[in-house]
């Protein structure tokens, strides 16, 4: 069966090329997935806008209203890293509902991916760190509320600690949040996850994969999870502008194979989101993100 992939042309909010957030990676990733036959094959899905209540389940209602009205406090916009214009608001909404859709597709098909998402710095009260809404938290909470899930696991392997996800879900006992990140990287003030693994600067493939190989079995020893969210940020790559680790392309590919294979071999549904990836060579970043989809397709 082809891999279900959620994507939308408006995931790209068309930032100027010199902007420090490489917005065009979403367009380039979409093009990569078309070329590789992973979308445009009848297995791709396009999200609709989410409703207010869904967003406000994870975020402060006043902040959600500001985003939807393009009236975010300038102090919060500075913390996010860009103004929340109409186009930015639209892409944040669609990327978030894309993860909601991908999560439901994963429950139906066993695995699915969103060609955006992983906005793990957005907290309950406001956005931060290039993240407007926290799509994984927005997706997990209604599924738990409606009884579709009893226990959720978030495996966040972005190079930055998942402070926003930890903040929103800290009082939700049905969600276990794991963040594996460069300890000295952003954010300076980290919000404790269920389990945080802070890594030293410069860690390369072999040590990283050995750590992950030991860690994954520990996650399923005491609890049966109904859905795994996998934030496959590619910013642990050695060439990433905002990363402090040193994985290669082959290391990222081995990471994806290890994580996806581990959970799918145990029959656990998995929803993949792309997370971070930064630098001037946006085409190379898009190709790194495409590794998630190529790997997931082998387990579909």
TrEMBL record:
Q: Which InterPro entries match?
A: HDAC_classIV (IPR044150), HDACs (IPR000286), His_deacetylse_dom (IPR023801), His_deacetylse_dom_sf (IPR037138), Ureohydrolase_dom_sf (IPR023696)
Alphabetical list of Pfam families matching this protein: Hist_deacetyl
Q: Which Gene3D superfamilies match?
A: Histone deacetylase domain (3.40.800.20)
Q: Which keywords annotate this record? A: Hydrolase
Keyword Hydrolase assigned to the entry: answer is yes
Domain of life of the native organism: Bacteria
| Residues annotated as domain Histone deacetylase | 19-282
Q: Which family does it belong to?
A: Belongs to the histone deacetylase family.
Q: What is this protein's name?
A: Histone deacetylase
């Amino acid at each position: 069966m082809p891999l279900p992939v959620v994507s939308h042309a408006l995931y790209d909010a068309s930032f100027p090329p010199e902007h420090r957030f490489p917005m065009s990676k979403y367009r380039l990733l979409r093009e990569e997935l078309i070329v590789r036959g992973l979308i445009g094959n009848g297995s791709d899905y396009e999200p609709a806008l989410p409703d207010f209540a869904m967003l406000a389940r994870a975020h402060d209602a006043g902040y959600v209203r500001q985003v939807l009205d393009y009236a975010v406090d300038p102090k919060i916009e500075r913390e996010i890293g860009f103004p929340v214009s109409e186009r930015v608001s639209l892409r944040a909404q669609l990327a978030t509902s894309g993860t909601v859709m991908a999560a439901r597709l994963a429950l139906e098909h066993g695995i699915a991916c969103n060609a955006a998402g992983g906005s793990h710095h957005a907290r309950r009260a406001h956005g931060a760190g290039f993240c407007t809404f926290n799509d994984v938290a927005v997706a997990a909470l209604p599924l738990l509320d409606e009884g579709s899930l009893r226990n959720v696991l978030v495996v966040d392997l972005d190079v930055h600690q998942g402070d926003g996800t930890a903040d929103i879900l800290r009082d939700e006992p049905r969600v276990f949040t794991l963040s594996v990140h460069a300890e000295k990287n952003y954010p300076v003030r980290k919000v404790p996850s269920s389990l945080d693994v802070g890594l030293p600067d410069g860690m390369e493939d072999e040590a990283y994969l050995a750590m992950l190989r030991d860690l994954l079995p520990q996650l399923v020893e005491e609890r049966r999870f109904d859905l795994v969210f996998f934030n496959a940020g590619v910013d642990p790559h050695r060439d990433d502008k905002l990363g402090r680790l040193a994985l290669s392309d082959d290391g990222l590919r081995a990471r994806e194979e290890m994580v996806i294979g581990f959970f799918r071999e145990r029959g656990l549904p998995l929803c993949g989101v792309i997370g971070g990836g930064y630098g001037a060579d946006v085409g190379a970043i898009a190709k790194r993100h495409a590794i998630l989809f190529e790997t997931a397709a082998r387990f579909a």
